[in-house]
Amino acid sequence: MLFAALPASASSIIMEFDVLTAGTAASGNPSIILDDEAGPDQIRVTVDTTALLATDVLSAIHLNYAGPFPPSPSLGLTNVSGPAAAIVPNIGDGFWSGGNAGDFDIRLSFANFGGGQISVFTFDQMGIALSDFLVQSTNGYYAAANLNGLGAQMSSAGWQAVDDFGVGAVPEPSAGLCYAVGLVVVGSALRRRKTA
After folding, report:
1. For 57-184, where are the E strands, in sequence order?
2. Which of 55, 65, 141, 162 makes the best surface tag, with the fewest CB within 10 Å?
C-alpha cells in the first residue's frame, strides 16, 4: 500500500469514482468528499450520486484506512442525512476485494442508494485524520464503488475506482480583505474621536 501526502492547509479530500475497473460503467461518476469540519475526532463523509441515473444503485464503497487495526476503540459511523451507510464487520488490512481495483480495509454498504441522492455520515475515532484515508490499494486506487442496476436492462453491475484526488483548503484571507478590515477599524476609531 502506498500513502499520499496531504498539504497542511487541506481541510477536505475530493474523490471521483471515474475509472471503470470491472463490469459495466454507470451512467455517470459518483463522488465522495471527506472533510474534518465536523469536529474533533470526526471525519465527515459526503457521498454524492447526483451524476447517476435514478436506476443506478450504489451498493458499496471500499476505502483504505491508515489507522490502527483493529481500530481501538472501534471505528464508529454516525449517519447524518440521506441513505444510511453501515460499516460491514471485519475491518482489516486489505480484507475487502474491490473488483479489479485491489484490496481495501473498510467496506461501507448502502441499501437503496440510487442515483440523484446524497448521503452524509461521520467516521468517529479518537485521533482520526484525513490523511488516514489517503492509502492506495494493492492496485493503486484510493477507493472503489460497487454499482448495480446498470445498463439498458438495469441488470448489470460494475466497479468504478478513484486513482487521484483533489484537496480543498481552509481559505486564507486575501490582502484586499485584510486592507478592507483595516480601513473599517481605522475609520471607526477616527469616528469615535470626532464624537468625543
Report:
1. 57-63, 76-81, 85-87, 96-97, 103-104, 106-110, 118-124, 143-150, 156-162, 166-169
2. 55
Q: In this predicted structure, what is the pLDDT of residue 66?
A: 85
Tens digits of residue pLDDT in 28-71: 999 999 999 888 899 999 999 999 999 999 999 999 888 766 66
Instruction: Give the cell for residue 133.
Output: 484515508
List of residues 6+ apart from 85 with CB closer than 8 A: 45, 47, 77, 79, 108, 109, 110, 119, 121
Residues 19, 46, 83, 62, CA torsion sign: positive
Q: Select from 152, 164, 189, 132 the least CA-distant residue to 18.
A: 164
3-class secondary-structure state, position 42: strand
What global pTM score does this model have? 0.79
pLDDT of residue 19: 96
What are the extents of the domains in the chain?
10-171
How far apart (Å, rounded) are the C-alpha atoms in residues 84 and 19?
A: 25
161 is written with which cell numbers?
475506482
Q: Cell numbers for 123, please give them.
A: 467516521
Looking only at the bridges linking them, the beta strands covering 42-48 and 57-63 are unpaired
Cis before residue 70, ω within 30 degrees of 0?
Answer: yes
The β-bridge partners of 143 are 63, 162
Write out pLDDT tens, residues 141-163.
Answer: 999 999 999 988 888 999 999 99
